[in-house]
Amino acid sequence: MIIGASYAGVQAGISAREKGYQAPIRIVADEIHLPYQRPPLSKAFLSGGVAHGNLILRGDDYFKAQNIEMMLGHRAIRIDRAANHVELESGQHLAYDALLIATGSRARQLAVPGAEHAGIVYLRTLDHAMNLKPKLEAAREVVIIGGGFIGLEVAATAAKAGKKVVIIEAASRLLERAVSPLISEFLRDAHLAHGVDIRFNRSVTAIENSGPLHEVICSNGDRARGDLILAGIGGMPNDELASAAGVICANGIDVDEFGQSSVPNIYAAGDCSNHHNLFAGRRVRLESVQNATDQGKAAGAAIAGKPEPYIAVPRFWSDQYDYKLQIVGLSAPDDLAVVRGAIAEGKFSVFYYRGAKLMAVDSINRPGDQMIARRFIAASLSPTPEQAADVAFDLKRLEAVA
Ligand code: FAD
Asked: Region 257-272: what's the mean pLDDT?
């Protein structure tokens, strides 16, 4: 039994079948939609470039052909470990031999006076996006609380549509925990060039709502007015079902490289879990399609009795204006950052080093660097910082030598 029908849950079901798992597979999901792609919700779907129908990951026929039973619109509310069953909100009890928790994450809610108003919106699900899209089209002034990936992508979509956009960010730069100052500054400049007003070092203390207008009040007394307010202040793991059942959790469900939790027949994968990542050298909870898919794959294989460890190099991407940011590996704030390419031309990569070891590469419109960096990081191969900085140096030569 699988709880959650998104990247991790669906992939686990598919991989279990691929590995020869014969027993019934049932996926229980609280959303009513067939599994869909989430990244376009803040990008092409919001700007009108992709319709709902084109977001579907797998259709009904696929699940039927795989003999996977989909129970959409059903919320799991309790795991009974002693009885090996899951209780649904509908009152049904479903038995399992092995259980995969793939419940993902949810948007962190803004906890300040006035934030409970229906005009303050979040973006996590297709329903959220369908609610946001017409509101964004009708809006004139948009305030985005949080300069993270989702906030910045919505800001870019709104600015391109001619809206007046204000971003309020608590830190002193954009994407502080994910990228180096070089990338933060590049993206800041891209937003400024599109007329976005970015206000750093401000936390929101209240929202005043009057009719269709909202005023966001900041700690320094600053105010930002909008007819649409989006809060993009991070995600929280949906790990409560697991922790209530006594499964060990610490910012997500603790799993090993096979997706196994602290309980032998309970697995977890994707945004709701945390694992020791080989490339980071520490436990991390990642929110990315790659992580959810690859962890789902590992959990499905383990459930089928053909375990294969999760050892994929972490990857992520974000689209803002004409820029594609791609990230491979996991960098840390103290890593040495080396630039390859031309920042002024909007085509460059940042190579991150810990000592002599290449840890991660962030690229803006340089997909070739990403392909090679992924192979380097997977193979623990590191060009020297001088080689990385020299665009005339063909990095592929190093692979040939190795
Ligand atoms: P989720 O996709 O979160 O799905 C979990 C599912 O479980 C949900 O449908 C949830 O409703 C359901 N569920 C939860 N609790 C229960 C319950 N008790 N009973 C039944 N069902 C339950 N990643 C990238 O790599 N690149 C991007 O560009 C990118 N852009 C993004 C843009 C947006 C707007 C969002 C929201 C996310 C984006 N991500 C991106 C992150 C990526 O989508 C997630 O990391 C990925 O969806 C995680 O997959 P998952 O299967 O772990 O969980």
From this structure: 98
Report CA(192)–ligand 1 centroid distance (Å): 30
200 and 343 share a domain?
Answer: no
Question: pLDDT tens across 333-352, in order?
Answer: 899 999 999 999 999 999 99
Q: Give residue ranges with CB within 6 A of ligand 1.
A: 3-9, 28-31, 38-39, 41-42, 75-76, 102-105, 123-124, 150, 238, 241, 270-271, 287-290, 292, 316-318
Cα(39)–Cα(49) distance, rounded to whole angstroms?
A: 13
Residue 125 CA, ligand 1 centroid: distance in Å: 8
Residues 6 or more apart whose CB falls under 8 angstroms from that of 156 comprise: 190, 191, 194, 319, 320, 321
Q: Are residues 185 and 166 in the same domain?
A: yes
Residues 205, 54: Cα–Cα separation, whole Å: 39
Residue 52 lies in a domain: yes
The answer to whether position 310 is within a domain reads: no
Per-residue pLDDT for 402 more than 90?
Answer: no
Residue 204: φ, ψ to 5°? -85, 130
**153 contact partners, CB below 8 Å, separation of at least 6:** 42, 43, 46, 318, 319, 320
153, 289, 315, 320: residue to mutate for ligand 1 pocket, most atoms within 8 A of CB: 289
Determine the longest span between alpha carbons in the chain, in angstroms. 67
pTM higher than 0.90, yes or no? yes
User: Which amino acid does the sequence have at 9?
Assistant: G
Q: How confident is the model at residue 211 (pLDDT cuts 50, 70, 90)?
A: confident
If you search the block for the tokens 């669906």, which residue do you land on?
A: 10
Q: How far is the CA of 194 from the centre of ligand 1 (A)?
A: 29
CATH number at residue 139: 3.50.50.60
Q: In this structure, are residues 163 and 192 in contact, taking their beta carbons and an 8 Å threshold?
A: no
CA distance 200 to 92: 49
Domain co-membership, 292 together with 327: no
